[in-house]
Amino acid sequence: MRFGVNYTPTRGWFHHWLDFDLDEVRADLDSIAALCLDHIRVFPLWPVFHPNRSLIRPRAVEQLVQLVDAAAERGLEVNVDGLQGHLSSFDFIPSWTTTWHRRNLFTDPDVVEAQAEYLRTLAAALADRPAFLGMTVGNEINQFSAAPHPDPDRISSAQAGTWLRAMLDACEQGAPGRTHLHASYDAAWYHDDHPFTPAHSARLGAATAVHSWVFNGTAQRHGSTGSATGLHAAYLIELSKAWATDPHRPVWLQEVGAPAPHIPPERAAAFTGTTVGHALDCPDVWGVTWWCSHDVDRGLADFPELEYGLGLLTNDRRVKPAGRALARMAREWRERLPARRTTALVAEAGEESARGRSMCAPGGRFFEAWMRAAAQGMRPAVVLAERASDAAHLAARGITEVLTVDALG
């Protein structure tokens, strides 16, 4: 079981790439390693590294390698997100894709070729580093493909799949055999018409990435202490398995955090323990990567209020209660292996078109039924309706009982 954190630099946030200071990075990494964590996820800013379609800055790539080497010196492995993309409410898109050069991020041949070369270049630069875990294509880049983004690059589900395969292939070409994957925000699981689908998440790449944020309606509906709020990450993990073709495909809880005011600061540690505990009760979880390492400096303007205080550590590197809670679990829970979930709840959601996703969203009929069952002590897995009578599929997952939502009452 792996425990890690999404690295948010204390000096300059992700703008630190503009004034890269390896000593400051080392100090940040020291404070992370002291929490008994074993990996970080890092975020090159795409426009900083790739400011022109034909220019990938060698100095920026060199600094990324220096960061990965510094992490390795502290016993930390590193996953690198490539296309940033979207971070904490800000979009970071190169000028050669916007305004006078406006081109679709997912379908324009020149853009797609340049993105692939960028990902290939980053992966190749790190391919010989033992601490390099692999690439994530980008941080929730699916948010650029549909509403509520104010200027979406509209695509079909087929086009989304084609783009994802091309980006993952580029990562593999750069660093063969590493753990390369992609990451969507939860519209992929919950929005009926979203072009990035659950099947994309659960079948493409080396693992399924889950990003669990309870400000999506879960905490608003169930409250900060509601059982569904603490179970949301586990629910997404189990939901993801319904679409996987590999019955033991690893699932990475790659982002999860305690956003105020939905989770009051005084409850952040308890929420951390509850959320991680439920997540680690799911089989086939690769690990948990908390969002985020350090609070955002309040000298930086225009962040949503909740973004400033999500760190496990303060901006001056002092450990917060949530940090102590995760460190304790990293020490005590790393060797735990959960039992198989033998009872599955049937989701009436289509496999290919992913119709019926809204029933699986907070407030949806399936979501609420699963949460009631889990709150009553059941450990429900999830199976798609068209697989509910597939004996081989059920046996491969260790499922011996299948229940419908109606049967729960």
Write out key terms for the chains shown.
single chain, alpha/beta, 13 strands, 15% strand, TIM Barrel, 2 domains, 409 residues, 36% helix
What does it look like?
This protein starts with a strand and ends with a helix. The strands form three sheets. An eight-stranded parallel β-sheet has the order 7-6-3-2-1-10-9-8. A three-stranded parallel β-sheet has the order 12-11-13. Helices cover 36% and strands 15% of the residues. The protein is an alpha/beta fold and 409 residues long. Strand 6, helix 5 (157-174) and strand 7 (181-183) form a beta-alpha-beta unit. It has two domains: 2-333, TIM Barrel (Alpha-Beta Barrel); 343-408, no CATH class. It has helices at residues 22-33, 46-49, 58-73, 109-126, 157-174, 187-190, 198-203, 218-222, 227-243, 268-279, 321-333, 365-375, 391-397, 405-408, and strands spanning 2-6, 39-42, 77-83, 86-87, 90-91, 132-139, 181-183, 208-212, 251-256, 285-290, 343-347, 381-384, 401-403. The radius of gyration is 20 Å and the shape is globular. The longest helix has 18 residues, at 109-126.
**Shape annotation:** globular
Elements, N to C (H/E): EHEHHEEEHEHEHHEHHEHEHEHEHEH
> Looking at CATH, which topology of the largest domain would you report?
TIM Barrel
Rg, nearest Å: 20 Å
In CATH, what is the class of the largest domain?
Alpha Beta
The largest β sheet comes out as:
8 strands, parallel
Q: What is the CATH homology-level superfamily of the largest domain?
A: Glycosidases
- Number of folding domains? 2
What share of residues are in beta strands?
Answer: 5-15%
- Widest β-sheet, arrangement of strands: 7-6-3-2-1-10-9-8
* N/C terminus separation: 36 Å
Taking pLDDT < 50 over at least 5 consecutive residues as the criterion, the unreliable ranges are none
Question: How many runs of DSSP E, i.e. beta strands?
Answer: 13
Question: Averaging pLDDT over every residue, what do you get?
Answer: 96
Question: What structural category do the secondary elements indicate?
Answer: alpha/beta
- Judging by the overall fold, what is the CATH architecture of the largest domain? Alpha-Beta Barrel
Helix proportion: 25-40%
